[in-house]
Amino acid sequence: MSSLVSLIPKPVLPWFDSRCQTFNHFKQLATVHIAAAKEAKTKSDVSGRTSTVHTSLFCHIFSSEIPPSELSVERLTKEAEVLLGAGTVSTGRTLDFISYYVLADRNIRKRLEEELDEVMADYPRVTPKLVELEKLDYLKALIKEGLRYGVMHRLPRCSPDHAIQYKTWTIPKGVGSYRNVFFIPDRWLGEVPALMARNLVPFSRGSRQCLGMNLAMAELYIVLAVLYRSGGAKLELFETQESDVTPAHDFLIPLPRLDSKGVRVVLRSEG
């Protein structure tokens, strides 16, 4: 997407879609910082002095044993764009999804507020530690349910050997089918079946596991606790319905219908 947007003349971008300007803006910003890190490393090698440029991921990359052919500014700029997307879109989507159900269901919001009462009592004077938030069972259940639905692909159920009969429909063998998924945080409370816990893999596993998993979880715990604590912001849904979060398209992450304006809220004043 960023490569395509970069081909569009800058004066045309606002007319085409104002949001597309963000891609080029970030690309330009990343290019400047990466070029500065590369130049600092070159000067450091020549002078033998330690670079005074602020340490960043790319400073470490330039100091690594990666072949020079892989260290072009253009190549690393693309890597920066990938990091930005991976570190913001997926977490943002999950927050959208969880927030909709918290705001749409008074019971969910009430239970969350009550659980947060003690740990968030002195916020913002005292910010609770992440480990304290991770001990809150209902908050943890909300996050797990949001990750289950908000960022994971809908996996097809497939019978390889026999046809499946569902009411008046026959699903031939080898043909995938999907089930509707319902937002039920309580499924993660109490004794959770080991198989269900094992199969929750929103960050994948093994050598391809998400590098930012711990950061993403910390963001989810902290943002949700701050937004939905008792005495916090008085948020209400605005012209938003369940179809604005229900997955309708698989664009690497599941997204709602194309004409959706996303989860929109209004902030009510006290009293």
Descriptive labels:
271 residues; 45% helix; 10 helices; two-stranded antiparallel ribbon; single chain; mainly alpha; two-stranded antiparallel sheet; globular
Architecture overview:
The protein is mainly α and 271 residues long. Helix content is 45%, strand content 7%. It is built from ten helices and six strands. It has helices spanning 2-6, 13-16, 21-47, 57-62, 73-104, 106-116, 130-133, 137-150, 194-198, 213-227; strands spanning 164-166, 169-171, 234-237, 249-251, 253-255, 265-268. The chain has a two-stranded antiparallel ribbon with strand order 1-2. Strands 3-6 form a two-stranded antiparallel ribbon. Helix 5 (73-104) crosses helix 6 (106-116) and helix 5 crosses helix 8. It is globular and about 70 Å long. The relative contact order is 0.11.
The arrangement of helices and strands along the chain is HHHHHHHHEEHHEEEE
**Number of strand segments:** 6
Radius of gyration: 23 Å
The share of residues in extended strands comes to 5-15%
> Structural class of the helix and strand makeup?
mainly alpha
The proportion of residues forming helix, as a percent range, comes to: 40-55%
How many separate helices?
Answer: 10
What general outline do the C-alpha atoms trace?
Answer: globular
Give a quick account of the main beta sheet: strands, pairing sense, barrel closure: 2 strands, antiparallel
